[in-house]
Structure formats: structure tokens, C-alpha cells
Amino acid sequence: MASLSDETLLVTLFRQGRLLKLLDEVTKADMTIYERFGETENTMTTLAQLQNSRERLTNSYTRVGTLLQRVHESQPEADTSLLELFYRSVAEALATADAIEATVKETKRDWDLL
Fold first, then answer.
1. Phi, psi (5° rounding) for residue 110?
2. Torsion of CA 112, 32, 97, 85, to 10 degrees
3. pLDDT, tens only, 20-61
4. Hey, how many other C-beta atoms are within 10 angstroms of the C-beta on 79?
């Protein structure tokens, strides 16, 4: 059967949850900056960075979810290349989350949103 271990599945779902929480945090920061300061020369770069962060988080979440589904649909077992792609995508999603988390903290500090 083409399934992942329970531990791998739980870790993957936990990481997807982290991506969703970061997506929420990025969106809140974006809306707060836009509502407080508007779309000005000073905010344009920050708002664009936050939009880019949202897109990266969404892409990471979708990719991991799609590959997770494909692994579990593979019968009688998942191909090695699919599993490698899945694990690489999870690692990339984690790196993306770490980078964006740092960006959001810096943005909140810069715009006094803490």
C-alpha cells in the first residue's frame, strides 16, 4: 500500500497548518498596513513583499497537499521519484515558512505592528 507512516503524515499536516497560520499572519499584516497607511510610496514595497509571501505560502501549501494526495493514491505503492519529490517539497515548504516568518516579524517591527 502506498501510504506514509503515521509520524510522517502528522508532521506533514502540522507543517501545512503552520503554512496556513503564516498565511493568516501575512494577510493580517498586509491589511493592517494598507488600512493604516494606505497605498503610498512608503508602503508599496512592503505590500508587494507581503503579496509575494502570500503567493509563496499558497504555492507551498498546495504543492505539499497535492503530492500528499498523489502518494496516497498511488497503488500498489508510490514510485520512488514521487516520494522524493514529496519529501523535497515538504523541506522546501519548511524553508519557505522559516523565511517568511522572519520577514513578517521584521515587517511588523518596521511598521510598529507588534
1. -60, -35
2. -160
3. 999 999 999 999 999 999 999 999 999 999 999 999 999 999
4. 12
Identity at 1, one-letter amino acid code: M
pTM of the model: 0.92
Q: Exposed, middle or buried, 94 (CB in 10 Å: 0-12/13-18/19+)?
A: middle
**What's the pLDDT at 2?**
56
User: In the block, which residue shows the cell 504555492?
Assistant: 59
Neighbours of 39 (CB within 10 A): 10
Burial class (CB in 10 A: 0-12, 13-18, 19+), 22: buried
